[in-house]
Amino acid sequence: MDREITGLSSMATRRLLAELSARIRRVHGAAVRFESAGGVEVARRVREGAEGDLLVLADDALAQLDREGHLLGGTVRPLWVSQVVAAVPGGSPVPALDSESDLRAALLAAERIVYSTGPSGTALVDLTARLGLTGVLAPRLVQAPPGVPAGSLLVPGAAELAFQQHSELMDLPGVVIVGPLPGGTAISTTFSGGVLAASTRPARAAAMLDLLGSGEASTTVLAAGMRIARHPA
User: Fold this and answer.
1) What string of DSSP letters covers 12-47?
2) N or C: where does the chain have the smaller number of CB atoms within 10 Å of the terminal CB?
3) pTM of the prediction?
4) What backbone phi and psi angles, to 5 degrees, belong to 227?
5) How far is Cα 158 from Cα 171, in angstroms, rounded to an integer?
6) How many Å separate Cα 142 from the centre of its chain?
7) Greatest CA separation found in the chain?
8) Burial, 168: exposed, middle or buried (Cβ in 10 Å; 0-12, 13-18, 19+)?
9) What confidence tens digit (pLDDT) does each residue in 70-101 have?
10) 41-50, 71-80, 112-121: range with lowest mean pLDDT
């Protein structure tokens, strides 16, 4: 077996990358392992010269690191698309989310609304502004610490409504996913990957990246609450 390929990723893709890495090892006999942390922390570590072969982050964050020269040119590619969903504590009333009016009602009814760091959190704050609710909701918004799933704050009663990537909210005990945001309020994040400039095995790392975003990974990706992103020709 070839030497292990290592990578860094945000928490949103931790579970998926663990499952895909195990599948790649089982099917292709190739070893790959990712270390996951909050996206801001991962970006900081890359800028400080962290060793590794691959990087998987939300597209905007990855593109910025690419512009800064931390990734090998031509290796960046979209991998998966994840929808932001709403969630409530188990046992509480589940609000409707069939229309923008439903979403507004759910937001206004919640005394505390938890959201994540990173792109999904930024998009949620921007959405409240587009809905004209910034003044009303700003005192109610609670940001989860970096690397902490927003849904984990629903259980101890720190919030009544949470918004985050589906992959980070699914399977959390005591959390009920309401569903994706309706119509024009929908929020999605593309997660992309690239070969780190520090990689000592760039060709091997690029081959692993292709496997992560290939059609053969689609069943695992769907089970993790995401879908395969279209790779530009």
Assistant:
1) GGHHHHHHHHHHHHHHH---EEEEEE-HHHHHHHHH
2) C
3) 0.83
4) -140, 155
5) 19
6) 19
7) 58
8) buried
9) 999 999 999 999 999 999 999 999 999 999 99
10) 112-121
What is the spatial distance between Cα 114 and Cα 147, in angstroms, rounded to a whole number? 14
Q: Which helix (H) or strand (E) holds 97?
A: none
Q: Do the beta carbons of residue 14 and residue 36 sit within 8 Å?
A: yes
Instruction: Please report the pLDDT score of residue 184 as a whole number.
Output: 94
Partnered with residue 84 across adjacent β-strands are 165
Q: Of 3, 6, 56, 18, give the one whose Cα is nearest residue 217.
A: 18
| The dihedral sign for the CA sequence 142, 147, 151, 154 | negative
Q: In 3-state terms, what secondary structure has residue 91?
A: coil
The label of the residue with tokens 């195990």 reads 22
3-state secondary structure of 228: strand
Which residue's entry shows tokens 């959405």? 127
In 10 A of CB 92, how many CB atoms? 11
The amino acid sitting at 158 is: A
